[in-house]
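Collaborator request, handled under Task 6.
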Amino acid sequence: MAASLERRTGAVGFFYWLWDGVDRTIFTAIKFSFPARFVSPFGFLGMLTFTVFIILGVSGALLMFYYQPMLDRAWDSVQFINDEVPFGFHIRNIHYHGSNAMVLLAVLHMYYQYFSGRYKIRNEVLWMTGVILGVVTILEAFTGYDVIFSERAELAISIAASLTTSIPVAGPTIRDAALGSGFSDFVLRFYAQHVFLLPIVMLGLMAVHFPRFLVFDVPMVMAIGGAILITGGVFPIDMGFKFEPTVPPGVTVPEWYLTGIYAFMRTQYDKFVTGLLWPLLFIISLVLIPFIDRYKKFSWRDRPLITAFGITSLAQIMVTTYWGFYISPDVSVPLVERLVIDPIFFYSTMILMVPLGFGFTYMMIKLANEAERKSKLAKSTGPKKVATINLSEKWINWLLVALLAFQVFLNIAAYNAALIGMKNISLFFVGIILLVFAAFFHIYRYALSQEKSAPPPPPTLVQDEKPKLAEPVSVEQSKLPKGDSLPEGKPEPKELAPEVPTPKTQADLGVGADNNLNVGSGDLNKP
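Structure tokens returned to the collaborator:
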């Protein structure tokens, strides 16, 4: 083993010591890759999901300092965090929008792996644990927004209680274990599930699901964090209405990742079938996809049936999600009638989307194959050079200075907005700060890659552009005045070879009989 003579001191030495110690633990089998250039974020959506999970863990731990998991204090404690605790508004918005971001990233990650066929390269276990991890992620987010105990949370709790009760045989037992015997037990039990039980399950699944090589792109991580903060600044989450048992609840819907199931339940068909059986069949079909897919190739164009199933499922998820949000605006109709969805119309639409999804997939595959054929043809006949944007060193320096100045301005603006009570504006500015930092880091990384890249080779001369030697001049031509030529009729004399300088004689060297003959070649260069 080679030993390094370089000593690292201070913070750098401590970092390397810590990293070397951690590398001897579980990280021995996991290698992190920090790309030196921009790479597509689709390849490491799982890593971004895990990063948001860390953000949720930190922000949730801070919220635990003031939250009180009791029936009569839960909503009031969250209101105190939101209005009175310093930066409590910011932490709560980060936690809420981070949970939505984690669910969205998990869904995008799953479908990217699905359409790219990554589960085919002996990754069946990774795929199965990933699907289960997505379901647990939704349950974690569900229990999180229920512990506030608002009217919206009460609706979600009632739906969860009715669904678990509808399970044959074990339903009442599961309901009592998860929700307790009534509202007095539910807050504490959901709180325990949200902060301890479900995160433990998620960490266990992540330990199995994580691949051996992880891509950690710093600018992209900063950009995701900035997007969460900007969303919190533009769409600050409100408190809603506190649930009062004596007050009739208003019109509300669950979170977007549950409105699809809510739409099925609003058809007033059997709760177990609509709320549990259909989602369970969908999850089982996703888990079994690696064993059903027998195509030899990975591209979605070469797996038409699997691609058609994925497109159809996406279309049904989007339609049912939108349908779950829709409530008739006619206030003259009773609330129950406004919430009911016509089952014939609803299920007819769902069934009709199956042939439409398969037909759309077939059309996509035909168009993609035709586009690939045209691109290959254009590549063989068109120009070979690809247009790129290359920034000079001067422009890179100016961009870095401009981003640094903008960063200073944003820090001052965010601090000033926090002082004068504009909480959402300060949260928005902090999100912009993270985005600017991501751009700064990316340009700096680009400059380093440009510096390390080899310079272009010098231009080579084409064969027709070789320099021509000067034509030899005869003695008589050299004696003629400038501009004159030999008289007509006189034969041109033979060309003389160019003069070769004769070696210097002894007199030329300044060496005579009286001079020292021991003169070396090195002495000739002396003055």
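The cover message to the collaborator said: "Residues 343-381 form the longest helix (39 residues). The chain has a mean pLDDT of 81. Please let us know whether this matches your experimental observations."
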